[in-house]
Amino acid sequence: MHIVVCIKQVPDSSQIRVHPVTNTIMRQGVPAVVNPYDLFSLEEALRLKDRVGGRVTVLCMGPPQAEMALRKAISFGADHAILVTDRAFAGSDTLATSFALASAVRQIGRDMAVDLVFCGKQTIDGDTAQVGPGIAKRLDLQLLTYVSQIDAVDPERREIVVRRRAEGGVQVLKTRLPCLITMLEGSNELRFATQAGIFRAARYPVQRWDSKAAGIEDPSRVGLKGSPTVVRKVFAPTPNTQRADLISCESGTPEDLAATLLAKLTTRNPELAALLGRAGMQETGR
Amino acid sequence: MQERFDVIVVGAGPAGNAAAYTLASAGMSVLQIERGETPGSKNVQGAILYADALERIIPTFRDDAPLERYLIEQRFWMLTDDAYIGSNYRSAAFNRPPYNRYTIVRAQFDRWFSGKVQQAGGLVICETTVRELIFDGERVVGVHTDREGGAIYADLVILADGVNSTLARKAGFHAELQPKDVALAVKETLFLAPEVIEQRFGLQGEEGVAIEMTGAITHGMVGTGFLYTNRDTLTIGIGCLLSNFVQQKIPPYELLERMKAHPAIQPLLAGAELKEYVAHLIPEGGYNAVPRLYGHGWMIAGDSAGLVNSVHREGSNLAMTSGRLAAETAIALREADRPFTAENLSRYRRRLDDSFVMKDLKKYRRLPATLHENPQFFTTYPGMMNAAMHEFITVDGTDKKSKEKAIRRSLGERRGWFGLVGDAFKLWRAFE
Amino acid sequence: MNTPAARRPAGRKLELDPRLAAYQGVWVFVEHERGQAHPVSWELMGEGRKLADQLGVPLAGVVLGAPGEPTRQFCQLAFRYGADRCYLIEDPALADYRNQPFTQGLTELVNAYQPEILLLGATTLGRDLAGSVATTLQTGLTADCTELTIDPENRSLAASRPTFGGSLLCTIVTLNYRPQMATVRPRVMDMAPYEATRGGEIVEHPLRLVETDILTKVLDYIPDNRQDRPQLAFADIIVAGGRGLKQPENFELVWELARVLGAEVGASRPVVQAGWVDPERQVGQSGRTVRPKLYIAAGISGAVQHRVGMEGADVIVAINSDANAPIFDFATYGIVGNALQILPALTGACRQHLALTQRAG
Ligand SMILES: Cc1cc2nc3c(=O)[nH]c(=O)nc-3n(C[C@H](O)[C@H](O)[C@H](O)COP(=O)(O)OP(=O)(O)OC[C@H]3O[C@@H](n4cnc5c(N)ncnc54)[C@H](O)[C@@H]3O)c2cc1C
Ligand SMILES: Cc1cc2nc3c(=O)[nH]c(=O)nc-3n(C[C@H](O)[C@H](O)[C@H](O)COP(=O)(O)OP(=O)(O)OC[C@H]3O[C@@H](n4cnc5c(N)ncnc54)[C@H](O)[C@@H]3O)c2cc1C
Ligand SMILES: Nc1ncnc2c1ncn2[C@@H]1O[C@H](COP(=O)(O)O)[C@@H](O)[C@H]1O
Question: Which of B43, B430, C21, C30 lies at a 20 to 30 A Cα distance from C203?
């Protein structure tokens, strides 16, 4: 079985700051990490490979430094790594990104047909959850998002059964390979790389594809040109400067503070007063 | 598959990177092992880089190293609870390239340096901790890591694993660190817009300033505080002897919080946002605490060898220099086709003795003990100096001559004339 | 590379292609599952109404489902929540949500009736469907929006959304492509008012797909036990705890107050990551957005990623030992103090209050 996992290198968003004057993003020195959601997909792909054999190819589109992310995937046991990198991709939105990645997956399939594509549920920087569905559509793959478990896979009969989280329950779905899966976070636990894996990753020559090598003939479909959406402005959330009404009372004991708060809540917010009354009824009712 | 290398370097800090880079550049097969997620990820601090030591390893480092600001000004402050007296030194000479001192952010700098090691042909593996050394009799022949998959062998292992080197202690190369020989430093990195930094500290472009502080901020403990300007962050920290922390029972972060609230410091930090907080040990034992630095099949460099000049807060330059000298020792032996026996490796110690590293440490060898035994340097003196200054510049109708007398009287009262003279002598001896 | 960054649409055509000007009207996808409409549909209807009025165009609901009265009922609901019209596809293949038939159905409707704006909830269903439809239509889609406005100059939709972990917002426009698509987080927009007598026009359309062409089959559906699953998003009162509670045992204080108030329990991310409570209880950027009438935050600092999930609450009470904690910058009431003492006191006070009101009532 040939499994392709799309992983993205993202800035550790907890360390990004906004320049207070210019409102631009201060990215300098912000460490890059593999998008955490993608690791659940990578692990699931490796488990499938452990189960039925085959090959795992990791694919990333990004600047040359994104090679780090791919190396990391190799250390866990991925077989191949391809970095799609080209200035032409700069400014790609999800539509253009999924176009480029779909094209690269098609190229990867020339060598050995692809049975399964994994994407992360979403990224922590773009945070759209759109690239996975986009790739599936372009490659005409069945789409299974928010998968929490893979129940069965049968490479011979080209079938897979998964559990998918829906809003109010879990769907058990059966579909045909090839398909595209995005894994729900927490659905598995990433393995610890072995020493051999670490060495292989350190020595592994990551393949770099420019847009041509990725099979993209029409450059107007990627980058800014291929992106319908345009970011008009980036801004910091307007801080609400209305400070809290700080509750204090003479004695300062927890009991008096609590009583003072409750009094304020019920006298100043009639709706709340009613609600608090009802709450009690329910409690006694139960 | 068994992995085998000429040299294994443990650690990717300044010492390890200097050693690995020098070795790899000379064509030796080098494996460098770092436990952090990336080189430098465990060293999230702002620091001062002394150009000279790096220049001797990578002469062109200024082309692409992530340097924050070059220092054009140094301030020394002595603080009381609510005042400080200080001196500033700023010179146009510092504003001419090549610059001598830079502020850096270690996380970025270490990563850059490690990239150079890889470009030179060194193999670097991260997120891997060396658990123990493998011995063949007396001789170190390799390492075991925390990863599943067996031993890694090498003709030589260079330990550059930082202060408190567990490896060296486990192997019996040196004893447990003594709380009096090690300082605990806490440090914060705070975001601040570059324009604000420049305006607040009177800087332009990439100019930077460093402030060293003593006095009330340490609450009588032996230690100093510091503040550096980086490009869009400030580094502020304070370090005191671990033994003092133990006695005084002040939590380190509280010490830093109090320092940040000092009326002289607070305005410099206004509006800054916390990015990172770290606590780290600094070896302060000085010359007398330097352990054995080599043996059969091993050498030890940088902080793990205790090579820190605490008086001038220099560490990374000693680390880089010792790493380089260890590597050069190995290269010379390999070229002469001689084995890495303890005897042959003893040249490393000789090279260190001939360098500024040991010379500087030797010069200040009495200082740690002097300071330790004389806490008045951190309590009484800053208070006295500040009081004197206050008296001197307050215009209150007293004539200047009477003021001088009053100052002299108060100095004598607070420490006693014998004490003052004695202290001066002690300090002079320690710095001599 | 799909991260938004401030950039200029350099050299790009800004005025709308006349072909695309034919696209008119605002559509809201009415999401339902197992006979229940997802409330986000009515929140979107409220927002859609504003956009449609501003543009002077009709507002329409889109309903896809199995043939029968239950599905048609959603059209009636859509009218009552403000839709002027409903586009309806009834087909057995649409009984359960599956990507392929739903994508096909929605895409066809768009191509046939050409709306200029199409809104979906940012739910598991909405996100799955929106991404596929946008790709098929080759148009722009803005995910997880928190604010939608119309640019009066060119009638385009300006969609704002948090980015970089919520520390920033960005406004995204879709130039020269129609429809303009967006998904919106549940509980961010106000619910549309309900008018029991309102009606509208239903436009029916066939699904040109037969079951045998659909490759994915639903083998089973395991509904969540409603009792077991936290219903945070729609709770009237939420008591939430953060890292300031220090120990997992102390979180019991939060549960106790919640029990007395008949409230749901929420938490900040560190607490969830430490495993003190179920991940479904996480409030914030990477958790749930909530809009209770009362939100009590104990030992929560009020980091922006938490704030974006709960600042829609009518009243926020913060209990924090640090007077400088950011949460006091936007809470309604604050108590500076130790939550480990205040929480039990508050629980006691509430119990007493409730006993009194009940006797009175
Ligand atoms: C608060 C503070 C401020 C300082 N300011 C300055 C300054 O301004 N200028 C200056 O020159 N010096 C400064 N120093 C000193 C300087 O940081 C050190 O002297 C220098 O980092 C020493 O380099 P090193 O390579 O020996 O050790 P380190 O930088 O500590 O590197 C050791 C590396 O080894 C790794 N490691 C450890 N054990 C293992 C293992 N078992 N397996 C694998 N990897 C391992 C660690 O993760 C680490 O990356 C400061 C120190 C502190 C604490
Ligand atoms: C991409 C990204 C997504 C994120 N998503 C979310 C999210 O969805 N939800 C979320 O919550 N966070 C999220 N975070 C994390 C967020 O940035 C904060 O780290 C988190 O909200 C802090 O949680 P906290 O307030 O419980 O803990 P802390 O920030 O540690 O605050 C604890 C507070 O408790 C107070 N305290 C301490 N002791 C007491 C006491 N005895 N009594 C009363 N008060 C006390 C302290 O003063 C402090 O203010 C995200 C971060 C990132 C980078
Ligand atoms: N540049 C990229 N390279 C590889 N995979 C990507 C890239 N961008 C997005 N993806 C994949 O698409 C998923 C969803 O991304 P997003 O739509 O940005 O939230 C991610 O988790 C990745 O698996």
Answer: C21
Residue-wise pLDDT tens digits, B73-112: 989 888 888 888 888 888 888 888 889 899 998 988 999 9
A residues 126-185 lying closer than 8 A (beta carbon) to C: 126-134, 136-138, 142-146, 161, 165-176
Q: Which among A257, A262, A271 is the nearest to C353, CB-wise? A: A262
| For ligand 2, mutation pick of C306, C307, C328, C346 (most atoms within 8 Å of CB) | C306
The enclosing domain of B304 has a CATH number of 3.50.50.60
Distance CA B142, CA B152 (A): 5
CATH number of the domain within which B185 lies:
3.30.9.90
Is C189 within the bounds of a domain?
yes
At C183, which CATH number? 3.40.50.620
Please say whether the beta carbons of B227 and B211 come within 8 A: yes
From the first residue on, what is the mean pLDDT of each consecutive set of 10 residues in chain A (286 residues)?
96 68 63 92 98 96 94 97 95 93 97 96 88 96 97 95 93 97 92 95 96 93 90 77 80 88 85 71 39
Q: Would the pTM count as exceeding 0.95?
A: no
Residue from C146, C257, C300 to probe ligand 2 pocket by mutation (most atoms less than 8 Å from CB)? C300
pLDDT (tens digit per residue) in C132-152: 999 999 999 999 999 999 998
Contacts of B193 in chain A (CB under 8 A): 19-21
- Residue B132: inside a domain: yes
**Rounded CA separation C332/A242 (Å):** 8
Number of domains in chain B: 3
Ligand 2 atom 39, closest CA? C244
Amino acid at B428: W
For residues B268 and B317, state if they share a domain. Answer: no
| Rounded Cα gap, residues B155 and C156, in angstroms | 69
Give the pLDDT of residue A178.
96
Are residues B251 and B122 part of one domain? no
CA of A104 to the centre of ligand 3 (A): 13
Q: What are A102's two structure tokens?
A: 């779909």
Would you say residue C221 lies in a domain? no
Residue C222 within any structural domain of the chain: no
For residue A252, give the chain C residue with the closest CA: C337
Domain count, chain C: 2
| Domain-embedded: residue C265 | yes
Q: Which two tokens stand for residue C216?
A: 């994915």
Nearest CA in chain C to A170: C222
Same domain membership, residue C312 and residue C188: no
Residue B94 lies in a domain: no
Q: Is B123 an 8 Å CB contact of chain A?
A: yes
What domain range includes position B415? 368-431
Give the burial class of B384: count Cβ atoms within 10 A of its Cβ; 0-12 exposed, 13-18 middle, 19 or more buried: buried
Helix (H/G/I), strand (E/B), else coil: B139: strand
The Cβ of residue C231 has, within 10 Å, a number of other Cβ atoms equal to: 10
Structural domain including C348 reads 232-360
**Residues A2-44: pLDDT tens digits?**
999 999 999 876 666 666 555 566 666 677 899 999 999 999 9
What six digits make up the tokens of A12?
């550790």
Q: Tokens in use for A234?
A: 């980036």
With touching defined as 3 or more inter-chain CB pairs under 8 Å, the answer for chains C and B is no
- Does residue B419 surpass a pLDDT of 80? no
Q: Any contact of C with A, at least 3 CB pairs below 8 A?
A: yes
pLDDT in tens, B135-152: 999 999 999 999 988 899
Q: Which helix (H) or strand (E) holds B326?
A: helix B316-335
Q: Is residue B90 part of a domain?
A: no
DSSP run (H or E) holding B231: none
Nearest CA to ligand 2 atom 1: C165
Same domain, C249 and C172: no
CATH value at residue C322: 3.40.50.1220
Q: C218 alpha carbon to ligand 1 midpoint, in Å? A: 57
